[in-house]
Amino acid sequence: MKYQISLILSALLPLTVIAASVHADWKKDGLTITDDTYENMEVVPLDDGRYRMYFSQNGSILSDISTDGLNWTREEGTRISGAGMPAIVELDDGTLRLYFNRQLDEKNAVYSATSSDGLNFTEEAGVRLQAGHPGGYDTLSGTTHPTVIQLPSGRYRMYYDTFYTQGDGNTPWHILSAISDDGLTFTIEQGVRIKGKRDLPGDTKFAWSPHIQKRNGQYQLFVTAQYDEPLKSNGIYLATSDDGKHFTVKPKPIVYRDTSAERVDTDKGMNGAPQDPFVLKIDGVDTIYYWVVNKGIYRAHKRTTTTT
After folding, report:
1. Secondary structure of the chain in the HEC alphabet?
2. Rounded to whole angstroms, how far apart are CA atoms 269 and 9?
3. Domains and CATH numbers, the chain
C-alpha cells in the first residue's frame, strides 16, 4: 500500500468494493483476510509446517499464524512498534532479519531488527537505507516498500520504490536498488531498475511495491503498476532478469483490476486494483498474496499447466 504520502486525492464518490481478476496461468484461492487494514504482508513458512504472516497495521508490525496459509489467527503482542512495510530475510545462522520503514526527516527510511524465534525482535542500531539516489529519484518520498534478497556471492540487494517531482510537476514512482556486503550497510546503486514509461507496457508513471525472489536461476520482481487507461491494465506485473539489475517486464499483469465497477481513487490507491504482492512456494507451487483496497488480502496460486 502507498505509505505516508498520497499520490492521488480521495474522490467524493462512495467506494464500490470489487475484487481483482487473475491471469489464466494463475488460479484465485479467494479472500484469505477480510480486514483491509492488514497491509504489506510477508509470509514465512515455519519448520513445523505452519505459516506466519507479518504485516503493517495501525503504525505497527504484527503477525498472524496459519496451518494452511488460508485461515489466519492473530498472535499476541507487537513485533515492532512505530513501523511498517516489513521485509523478512533468513540469515545463514537461522536468525530472521526484518527490514521495515520508519520516518526520518519527514521521509521514509529503512531500518532493521533481528529475531531468533520470529516473535521477539531486537532493533539494530542505525539506518539501513535513506534518501540519496545520485539521480535524485528519491527526493520526495525517501526509500519505501523494501524487499531484500541474498545473492549467490553472499551480498544482499534491496529493491524499493520512491517518487520525486519532475519539472512538469508530475510525481512518477520508480523501483530502485541498493547493495550491501553484510545486510546492514547499503549503498544505493546507479540507475533505475523499473521505470514506468520506459519498462512497463502502455503509458504509466507509477511502479511501486516490489517483491523479489529467484526461481530457476532467474530473478523475478513482482511490481504494482497503476494506469489511467485501460483500467484492466492496473495490477501486478512480473519482471525477470538474469543479473538482478536489468529487468524485462511481461506484457500482461498476473493479477489485474476487475473493471465491472466505476473507477474511484482513494488515498490508498484505485478501488479494485491489486497491489503489495508477496510470493512464496506452498506445497511446491508458487503462491501470491496481494491486497485490494477496501477488501483485504487475496491469495492465488500458479497453475501447474499454463496457458499461452
Report:
1. CCCCCCCCCCCCCCCCCCCEEECCCEEEEEEEECCCCCEEEEEEECCCCCEEEEEEECCEEEEEEECCCCCCEECCCCCEECCEEEEEEECCCCCEEEEEEEEECCEEEEEEEEECCCCCCEECCCCCECCCCCCCCCCCCECEEEEEEECCCCCEEEEEEEECCCCCCCCCEEEEEEEECCCCCEEECCCCCEEHHHHCCCCCCEEEEEEEEEECCEEEEEEEEECCCCHHHCEEEEEEECCCCCCEECCCCCEEECCCCCCCEECCEECCCEEEEEEEEECCEEEEEEEECCCEEEEEEECCCCCC
2. 9
3. 20-302 (2.115.10.20)
Q: Evaluate the CA torsion angle 212, 171, 6, 189 in order and state its sign.
A: positive
Q: Report whether the peptide linkage leading into residue 230 is cis, meaning its omega lies within 30 degrees of zero.
A: yes
Q: How far apart are CA 247 and CA 256, in angstroms?
A: 20
| Amino acid of residue 67 | T
CB atoms under 10 Å from CB of 117, counted, come to 8
Answering whether pTM is above 0.85, one says yes
For the residues 101-117, what does the mean pLDDT come to?
Answer: 96
Model confidence over 174-215: pLDDT tens digits? 999 999 999 999 999 999 999 888 898 888 878 999 999 999
Distance CA 15, CA 264 (A): 6
